[in-house]
Structure prediction request, 282 residues.
Amino acid sequence: MPRTRKINPDDATTVQTTASEDDSSSGKTRYAAPALDKGLDILELLSRSEQMLTLNQISRQLGRSVNEIFRMVVTLEQRGYLITDNDHYRLSLKLFELAHHHQPIRSLVSTALPHMRELASRAVQSTHLTVYEAGRVIVVAQVDSPERWAFGLKVGALVSLTDTASGHVLLAFRDEAERAAMLAAHVRMDGEQEIETAQLMRQIEDTRKRGHSRMESRQIRGVVNLSYPVMGANNRMLAALNVPYIERIDKKVNPSLDEVQGIVQEISARLSRLMGDSSFGS
Prediction:
């Protein structure tokens, strides 16, 4: 068996020599971990990038030499955190997979999926569940329509915070400080449309007052996006439950947009109660 060495009190002075001086503003001792810093810098940079980056591009944007980051990039690739294509790098979905093992997300998804299947069956539409993470909106669960064809978003897909119905819902049911922090961290997505701050604030406030978002897709023509909040204990915003509604124009009669909206509202309120909210949707 591999052996690990315990650090005893006599080693404390040795450990301290690797630490930086006390942070005068916080009063806490800050310990340096240069290799970890480099790795996290690389992951955070690629998470913000809309395109794959070469090693040279990564080094320039981080202000580090290629030699400094080469081994770290190779290690991250070998561990499955990065994917390379013709000497260009991007994030894999491993961080997303790790997040799915995190108990709150796992609990949310496992609770939501049976009710999302009911929603898809009753509405004859696809449905997906989104959460906010690091300036973007990520799909954490999805159920296809029972129709012969379906329009939906893949689990793990990233969408914009500012020009989607789910983004508006995730912003609308937060306090002002949380909302400001989310917008400050906003990462623009490929193809994202510009929107003035004042207009965005009006849309968010309208969403909050209505209790949901219903808007034509700004990405796909002919799709109307319905989004309702899923709340947790202490009125905490957890996720957005969404349906990208597509209308059939042949002779088969499916639930109307208004009928589907009522189903989404019902299921979101039910999920909110199951996640610990005692007032939302009552």
Confidence is low (pLDDT under 50) at residues 1-29.
